[in-house]
Write a structure and sequence with these properties.
The complex is a heterodimer of chains A (114) and B (113).
Chain A (H helix, E strand, L loop, with lengths): L3 E4 L2 E4 L5 E7 L5 E7 L5 E9 L2 E4 L7 E3 L5 E6 L8 E8 L9 E2 L3 E5 L1
Parallel strand pairs in A: 2-11
Antiparallel strand pairs in A: 1-3, 3-8, 4-5, 4-9, 5-6, 7-8, 9-10, 9-11
Chain B lengths: L3 E4 L2 E5 L4 E7 L6 E7 L6 E7 L4 E4 L2 E6 L4 E6 L8 E7 L9 E2 L3 E6 L1
Parallel strand pairs in B: 2-11
Antiparallel strand pairs in B: 1-3, 3-8, 4-5, 4-9, 6-7, 7-8, 9-10, 9-11
Classes of the chains: A mainly beta (114), B mainly beta (113).
């Protein structure tokens, strides 16, 4: 099992450009999450999904959109990138089964917006 | 919503000594408290967790304690080794909340040889 994978690993954007970050998991997990990590601020939840076709806002959703068309994939979109979106983005997944609360994280995507 | 505070932000210990990282949470309904270790350039990885019906849990050199009354929990690492050097995050979540985690701000642990 590859676990949680993210593409790309690194990207540089100019202000106003758009891009999509892809997260894929092969553990058949129902829940998937997108976080951003900034120095001194831990990880903050952007959006999450409790199943295929469903998404919900997290703590810092502004400027981002998400889609979960397939159970194994969770896409994070930036329609018009801003320098404030320079960050490291992590995807995670977890099982819905009772007692299985571990979130498994991907390796991250480093995004620089100039 | 939930708020998690973590201290200290940096911690240096001599190899073989113990390290303690402390977190407090605000929502008394939170009932699951994981700890994650993040090595440089990698994603966080769960190292230990504790549920609100348990006061302490140990796994080899790592232990976590929970005080529900005071709403704080701590990570204890004994006999530290250089490979323990990493950033550690505590988190809290509510059961049934789609497992949404609220993270602390992290502790950079450095184990000096």
């Amino acid at each position: 099992n590859a676990g949680v994978t993210q593409t790309p690993k690194f990207r540089v954007l100019k202000t106003g450009q758009s891009m999509t970050l892809l997260c894929a998991q092969d553990m058949n997990h129902e829940y998937m999450y997108w976080y951003r990590q900034d120095p001194g601020m831990g990880l903050r939840l952007i959006h999450y999904s409790v199943g295929e076709g469903t998404t919900a806002k997290g703590e810092v959703p502004d400027g981002y959109n998400v889609s979960r068309l397939k159970k194994q994939n969770f896409l994070l979109g930036l329609e018009s990138a801003a320098p404030s979106q320079t960050s490291v983005y992590f995807c995670a997944s977890s099982s819905q089964r009772g007692g299985q609360q571990t979130q498994y994280f991907g390796p991250g995507t480093r995004l620089l917006v100039l | 919503g939930e708020n998690v505070e973590q201290h200290p932000s940096t911690l240096s210990v001599q190899e073989g000594d113990s390290a303690v990282i402390k977190c407090t949470y605000s929502d008394s309904a939170s009932n699951y408290f994981p700890w994650y270790k993040q090595e440089l350039g990698k994603g966080p990885q769960l190292i230990i967790d504790i549920r609100s019906n348990v006061g302490e849990k140990k796994d080899q050199r790592i232990a976590v304690t929970l005080n529900k009354t005071a709403k704080h929990f701590s990570l204890h690492i004994t006999e530290t080794q250089p490979e323990d050097s990493a950033v550690y995050f505590c988190a809290a979540t509510l059961s049934g909340s789609a497992r949404q985690l609220t993270f602390g701000s992290g502790t950079q642990l450095t184990v000096l040889p």
